[in-house]
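Researcher: Here's the sequence for the chain we discussed earlier.
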Amino acid sequence: MGLLSVDPGLIIWTIITFVILLFLLRKVAWKPILTMIDERERTIRDSLDQAEQARNEAEEKLRAYEQRLAEARKEARNIIAEGKESAEKIRDDIVKEAQEQQQHMLDDARRQINAEREKAIQEIRESVANIAISAASKIIGRQLDEQAHVDIIERSLQDMGGDAQ
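Model: Thanks. This is the structure I predict for it:
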């Protein structure tokens, strides 16, 4: 037999050995390999499920965070608006109080001016009366009684522009 000769006995024993080995591997190794592949597939599926669940939780937390952030911004805007409103109210109160004080001061000044005017008019009347009495005394050359003084004063006032205003 040569180098490339085919031995039918060897081929049969090789096939029988291969079938036995295949049968033994199927009984002994095939189940553990399939079990290991199934377990690996289950582990990968569980990992994917956990990753999906973690992603969903992260998205939910992100939505909750964004909602809280929006609420915080809204509250901040409300606080700012309230602060502006309060500042405007305080400013309006201060302006109103200043205007009231100004009006009060103007009223006081008007009262003082009127009081001073009345006082000046009274002093002028007294001066005019004294001058009139003095002039009348010199003209008449004698001292007048009280009623005569009053009559002369009244006539002088009438001549100067009427009764005291």
